[in-house]
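Same chain as my last thread, 49 residues:
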Amino acid sequence: MSVPKVIDDVIVYFSGAVSRIFALNDDHYPNTGVQPYSGDPYDKKHSSD
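reply #2:
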């Protein structure tokens, strides 16, 4: 393998990684919306401390 070919392959490898890091977000998570709270609010006068 010639030196220019190796250098070219390294540049292509790193530019592919950089483009994946800085690409637009392509996550496809489901829309969950607001989750209801089903617990009791903290009340200091009713705590056991």
